[in-house]
Amino acid sequence: MDPIVEVVALFLGFLGWVMVGVALPNRYWKTSTVDGNVITTSTIYENLWMSCATDSTGVHNCREFPSLLALNGYIQASRALMITSVVMGAFGLVAALVGVQCSKAAGDNYVLKGRIAGAAGVLFVLQGLCTMVAVSWYAFNITQEFFDPFFPGTKYEIGEGLYIGWCSAMLAIAGGACLMCSCRMGSQEKYPLPHQSRGTVYSGPARTRSVAASTYGRNAYV
Fold it and tell me: Which residues cross the membrane (predicted)?
């Protein structure tokens, strides 16, 4: 395993985990501006947990969604995927801290450390995929309602929370891929397959007999 690649992968995974923690409670997953006069102009924005509104006078009101079962299916699925992403990222960080070479947690057993680091890379990739699916699914429903001419409700646009989620997913996937590739390259470099020539013996007396037999073959005797 390359220590530099491991450190970079750990940093990317940590940054992706922090950003998914920032994107999850962010209020601006989708926004909509209702234009009117100076008094009635307001901004409505929602996330996975609540709906908020603010007007030009600075009045700010938020209302949490009253029932989980009354929500749309994609919001429930996005909640589950984002929470799963946070949990997988936490386990991935712990495994990466144990599996990197500069850590003393697993001692000098580099085979075990490499396997733990590889598992951390898989967890990072799963974290990124869960985040990517959640924010992309949410954004798909926003765009579908926005371009639907027969949609009767308020039309929203993509908010900053989704962009943070996309960046988090890309960082987590990149960190996990680097960590898995580093572990694979390290195992191939440190544990090459032995190449033995035919008829070669490595023990002391046997090697002497082999050399003697090659020196004094059947043609040497008269």
Answer: 7-24, 80-100, 121-140, 160-181
